[in-house]
Write a structure and sequence with these properties.
425 residues; alpha+beta; 20% strand
């Protein structure tokens, strides 16, 4: 007889804000917000910032009065720092399970089926303590018989201090009593549109969704909806991902600090975004065959508006940055028009396949591929070891006057030697 499934979900608490606190312990217990690229809007809040009324995605200029009133610490996003913390945490979690699924930058599912049920809470507390001791990042852990119930258990663990950061929903003598108190919109995979639709049919809490007729669910929510309902009933239908699927597209885009009116800075920006996007492509072991470039004026600026994009297929799938920059510049020249102030640009890679499935060009010598692959390998290893853009293409520019605003960015404490924290005794 197969042993019943048991999942754990480790979720970092207020991840971006927690990363900023690690090297600034004076901020513990104080409100923190993290801003998007170009310092445009709020993308992360500590619990203290939520309490005083800062909302998610709120434009920064709208909350400056609250920032001043409550002395809120404000940080520009530092994804190099957050990404490094994420890698460290995931490496720690691998020591606690034979099956780990990294769900997002701050979440991971663990298969805990082989763990004795009577020891599971203590085991989860050991995980929490280890992550906190080794990285300084607090985490909450939900435990359940399905991934959907585990997600809900994690929310309960976060919201109720009495659980000390861990909640095992399988320990509850009456799970239905818990599900009845949770809005259906809290269920994994239920977005605001579907929540609104369900409310119209008087399906307002999770228990009501769990007890909904299967045929009605299939008709109105399709097979994925039925899978969710079965998971709420304790029947595992969403397995641990054995292989991480390649993304269908990868995009890098930024808004500029000031409108850009000439071609050269746009070329630098597009080359920079292309470099970052191809780096992401290589990180997941893939190649791509198509690139699209787009530019646009600001939506709220005075004068005429313009937005255009152009894409082009490469001769063969590749992850070589130089090839993509050349094609990206060609696309940019085709859509650039004088007389506009451009406020945003971006690049999108599509036609993505695993590198092992790469179809090579019949007329290109094999050694050319090998040289390009080796060059990218050296470049990535150098930048990983010594910091982002230690090696970069000249096409990305030096002064970068077009660069986006990041006036409140913290140092890259863990990824660049010249920014390591100095302690004076």
């Amino acid at each position: 007889m197969n042993q019943p499934k048991l999942f754990g979900l480790v979720d970092c608490n207020n991840f971006y804000a927690s990363c900023e606190r690690v090297f600034k312990p004076k901020l513990r217990g104080k409100p923190i917000i993290v801003l998007s690229n170009n310092d445009g809007c709020v993308i992360a809040r500590s619990n203290e910032a939520k309490t005083v009324g800062i909302t998610m995605a709120q434009p920064y200029f709208e909350c400056k009065k609250l920032v001043k009133k409550y002395n809120i610490a404000v940080f520009s996003s530092n994804f190099s720092l957050y990404g490094d913390f994420s890698n460290r945490i995931m490496n720690i979690l691998e020591n606690f399970t034979t099956d780990l699924e990294i769900y997002s930058v701050d979440e991971a599912f663990l298969d805990l089926t082989s763990m004795p049920v009577k020891d599971i809470i203590a085991y989860a507390q050991t995980i929490r303590k280890t992550v906190k001791d080794w990285t300084g990042i607090p985490v909450s852990i939900g435990i359940g018989p399905t991934k959907t119930l585990t997600k809900l258990a994690n929310k309960i663990a976060k919201k109720n201090p009495g659980h000390n950061g861990v909640f095992n929903i399988t320990d509850c003598p009456d799970i239905d009593q818990i599900l009845e108190k949770i809005d259906v919109g809290e269920v994994w995979g239920i977005g605001w549109k579907l929540r609104k639709f369900l409310h119209q049919y008087n399906i307002k809490n999770v228990l009501q969704l769990k007890n909904t007729d299967d045929e009605w669910v299939k008709k109105h929510m399709a097979i994925n909806g039925l899978r969710t309902v079965l998971e709420l009933r304790g029947i595992p239908k969403i397995e641990m991902a054995e292989v991480e699927e390649a993304q269908k597209s990868i995009i890098t885009s930024r808004s500029f600090r000031h409108p850009v009116t000439t071609l050269q800075p746009l070329k630098e920006a597009v080359a920079t975004f292309t470099s970052r996007t191809t780096e992401k492509l290589r990180e997941q072991g893939c190649v791509a065959s198509h690139i699209q470039v787009y530019i646009s004026t600001g939506y709220h600026q005075q004068g005429a508006m313009y937005r255009e994009s152009k894409g082009k297929e490469l001769p063969y799938p590749t992850a070589y940055t130089g090839d993509f920059i050349a094609v990206a510049h060609e696309c940019l020249k085709n859509i650039f028009k004088w007389g506009y102030g451009y406020k945003k640009a971006g690049v999108i890679l599509t036609g993505i396949v695993p590198k092992r499935h790469q179809q090579l060009d019949l007329f290109t010598p094999l050694q050319n591929y090998e040289k390009k692959n080796k060059l990218m390998e050296i470049m990535d290893q150098t930048n990983w070891r010594w910091g982002s853009e230690t090696l970069q293409y000249g096409a990305t520019g030096i002064n970068r006057k077009w660069s986006y605003r990041q006036e409140k960015r913290s140092p890259n404490y863990t990824t660049q030697w010249d920014q390591i924290l100095t302690i004076r005794i």
